[in-house]
Amino acid sequence: MYTRLLLTSGKPSAADAYIGGGAFLPENIPWPTCVEGRALFHLMALPAHWFYAQGVAEDFWFSVFIPTDTRNHSHFRRLRAVQGTSEAVVLAYRRGAASRSRCMSDSLERGRIERVECLEPDDNENLDSKLDGVDAWLQSTLTWNGGCRRLMLYGADIDGILPSHKGVLSDGMAYLFLQDHPDFSLDGRAGAFFLQLG
Q1: Least CB-packed of 29, 35, 47, 70 within 10 Å?
Q2: pLDDT, tens digit, for every residue of 108-127?
Q3: What is the DSSP letter of 82?
Q4: Which residue, among 180, 137, 154, has the nearest Cα to 4 in the 3D structure?
């Protein structure tokens, strides 16, 4: 039994996790940039209560930002784990009043992420997008010294929702790591995001 993530083209409500479509970052938080200074692409936003059972306000959220190169896909190597880090940025924040974007390639497309309880057994060969559950690595085991793996995202699940960014994660598997006890009052980096290709 495990919690599968179902990505749909349905319009997300204010309470729904979503793929694409900009971020509700407060204005006091700078938009993340790559090492060359270009704004990163907003990949997804997730409510914090999905990951922490108690003491988390409804307006606490995480967002994942990644470098993108839709022409040559050079960003794949930037998302690889190298000495426990990648060029992706995971932010914790209190959700702002309006969605915004600073990335020229940010998609206007936005899809809803739903949680579905699956009765099938989970194992290390299950490559569904999912919350928690059994680790299923496409390559070597990943670790992050700030916390543990909390979400797996299968790249092909995104393609139908973000057609302008089809293949942004190829058919690889992405792994989201989050701090065990993030401080949302700091409005800062709170995790890591890695991509493995088969």
Answers
A1: 35
A2: 789 999 999 999 999 999 99
A3: B
A4: 154
- Which pLDDT tens digit goes with each residue over 123-157? 999 999 999 999 999 999 999 998 999 999 999 99
107: its two tokens: 């998609």
Q: What are the structure tokens assigned to 130, written together?
A: 């999912």
CATH 2.40.50.220 fits 2-196, yes or no: no
6, 7, 100 from 161: Cα distances, Å: 11, 8, 19
Contact 137, 143 (CB under 8 A): no
For the whole model, what pTM was predicted?
Answer: 0.94
Structure tokens, 143: 């670790």
Q: What is the domain partition of the chain in residue ranges?
A: 2-196
Query: How many other β-carbons are positioned within 10 Å of the β-carbon of residue 13?
Result: 8
